[in-house]
Amino acid sequence: MRTIDMIISATLSNRDTVKQIERDERVLKTYEKYPELQKIDNNIKDNIRANLMKILDDELDPDSLHDDEERMLLEKREQFLKVNCISSDFDKLWPVCEKCGDTGFVRKGNLRVVCKCMGEELNEAFKEAGLGDFESVRPSLLDAKAIKNPENKRKEARSRLDAVIVSVVEKKEQKVLIYSDKAQTGKTYLAICLTKVAIGCGLTGCYVKMDDLIGASDEKISDYKYCDFLVIDDFSSMLTNNFKIRFALDRILETRINNGKFTLIVMNESPSEAVDKSDEKIAAKLSRIECL
Q: What is the CA radius of gyration of the chain?
């Protein structure tokens, strides 16, 4: 599974090439308009090159690389730029995104979150995480729904899940939790929002419905075992009677519990009912899990 960091790194590598080309074209146009500036810059380079050769031949002290002549040329250059209203960084690489400085991330309080300029990359990470069918689900919409529907517990659940994000991302607390509520109360929406927020904070995350474990490849099972943040949705004690699902779920939970990996198990059943009706090995693990 490609993580958000891997996807962003690939984009930034391509962005660096574009910035270099743009920089070269900008310098060429500036020099064509102001040949005297090019002459000054060439003189600065020639001076440094000559001093380097003298240092290599032991004819000059290394501390004298930047001499009075260079300082005079730099002062002349600075004055020329000022008089002609030329940006002092015209020959530098200009960031595509001023907000993140082309790092792909910005700071929001204590959190490092994906910059808005990486929207396509973030959507790609969501697809890698198993959220390809939920493009319309956005955490920002959750708050609006909570305000319009105060009776459906969305606001309360959002508050609790926000606290989970803070504990995982800021405090580095890792745990396995059960999120139980009756059907049609927005649990899946919340779980998807939670996963998206986690990925947006730079974590490796996965979302999977329990019945999809039946056809999961070994590679996918490995992703579910070791990612930073996992949501297992639509848990059903009845499905633990299916050998393939039970075997996969047991491996996933065993690894994540032992390694302190954050996991959220979403179910309609009450935790006690899930323990009573699940396969013995799965029930033993569920009985050790805290409820959200």
A: 28
Tell me which fold the domain 129-291 belongs to: Rossmann fold (3.40.50)
Q: Which amino acid is at 241?
A: N
What's the rounded Cα separation, in Å, for the pair 159 and 163?
6
User: The tokens of 115 are what?
Assistant: 């910059």
Cα–Cα distance for residue pair 129/53, rounded to 1 Å? 55
Domains of the chain, by residue range, sit at: 129-291
Q: If residue 106 lies in a helix (H) or strand (E), which one and from where to where?
A: strand 105-108
DSSP 61: -
pLDDT single digits (tens) 80-124:
999 999 999 999 999 999 999 999 999 987 778 999 999 999 999
pTM (whole model) above 0.90 = no
CA atoms within 13 A on the CB side of 164: 28
